[in-house]
Fold this sequence. Notes:
By secondary structure, this protein is α/β, with parallel strands linked by helices. The chain folds into 3 domains: 3-87, Up-down Bundle (Four Helix Bundle (Hemerythrin (Met), subunit A)), CATH 1.20.120.140; 103-295, P-loop containing nucleotide triphosphate hydrolases (Rossmann fold, 3-Layer(aba) Sandwich), CATH 3.40.50.300; 301-432, Signal recognition particle, SRP54 subunit, M-domain (434 Repressor (Amino-terminal Domain)), CATH 1.10.260.30. It contains 20 helices and 8 strands. An 8-stranded mixed β-sheet has the order 3-2-4-1-5-6-7-8, with helices on both faces.
Amino acid sequence: MVLADLGRRINNAVSEATKSSTVTQSVVDTLLKEISNALMESDVDIKLVLKLRKKLKATLEVKESDNITNRKKLIQKAVFDELCDLIDVKNVEIFKPRKKQSNVIMFVGLQGSGKTTTCTKLAVYYQRRGFKVGMVCADTFRAGAFDQLKQNATKARIPYFGSYTESDPVKVAQEGVEKFKKEKFEIIIVDTSGRHRQEEELFKEMVEIGEVVKPNQTIMVLDASIGQAAEAQARAFKESSNFGAIILTKMDGHAKGGGAISAVASSNTPIIFIGTGEHINDLESFTAKQFISKLLGIGDIQGLMEHVKTLNLDQGDSMKNFQEGKFTLKDLQSQMNNILKMGPLSKIAQMLPGGIGEMMNQVGEEETSNRFKRMICIMDSMTKKELESDGSIFIDEPSRIIRVARGSGTTVTEVEAVLLQRNMFARMAQTTKNMQSNLPPGMADK
Ligand code: GDP
């Protein structure tokens, strides 16, 4: 089952359970069964699913004294928390590179896992955050490896180092890292060679390269399409390269993504990014909370904010307002304008609340973009007073809706949809303040 379907199924199960006027034990049982089935169909290990089910069951035990509203909130929160728990890695420190010093990051993984592509994606990620980044190709095994890295690096304007003549990868790695260190590069990414399968030779080479470049962080790149087998592969590599983090690639809608994530998490190694496509920008930072928020279509405001920051778009007061729990129609207008500039829309849409991701899946990128433009057009037809309001002005004076619909050449329904959209953002804004607390964003006021 693809991840979007998993999210939809879990969401539906939660909605069904919270829709009924009373939440009986049988409603809870049906919910648990549906969530478990959905997870298993997404290739999550059965033992993990049973554990989650048991914990959820204990948390959701129906008591006579329960207030129905609290019970519904409890269901939403418990499902969110347990799903996070399933893929969260605890008590492991995540490496954070520091500016003004050389941070060496070494990549390991099998051939074809997406290692070279991911090296470039990560280089770009750090470059956008103001680091001075260089890449070293220590893959002398595969013909064409250096050319591939060179091509990627050139496209992304990242300085690179490699050799067409030297066949010893350890030497190339050492020279490259030394050169970049001397030139005060802050992030030095070393791409090592892979093999088609795990071989003695490969592991030996990794150890040798590791000894000379002394990485601050070793990252294993794993192809998510192998599902639960990811855990065994990670374990085999761990014995020789002792990597501290994982990047799962090919998470773009593949059926087995859920299996790989949970398998890897259960091996207690943090996944720090996921690759979601072949392009340089298709790399998303990964935390359990963010991932589950997005999976359930609640929106990933943290990810969105991070993305916005790297693009240096004009935010006006929107983000400040957002963090303070406010959100006017004008803020919505400025956000939608920014979103259209961010591209690709498919990536952004999944981070937004209010079913925009769903709309995107149903009608496609072009139509979603057209709908966005109509929404912006609607807001362009509003007065300053209306724009700076929270939308209640339209409820008090419905004639305003008709005027705006006429002025923008749209319909009353479309204007109402804009107001609804603002409400959803506002709700998210209110819960943004609780992001670090236990409340899942967007769920608090459901
Ligand atoms: P390496 O042999 O491990 O260095 O793998 P490459 O970087 O050459 O990647 C192998 C193939 O996987 C290439 O066709 C990449 O474009 C593709 N690839 C890498 N990452 C992703 C990803 O996140 N999603 C998708 N769909 N393809 C990817």
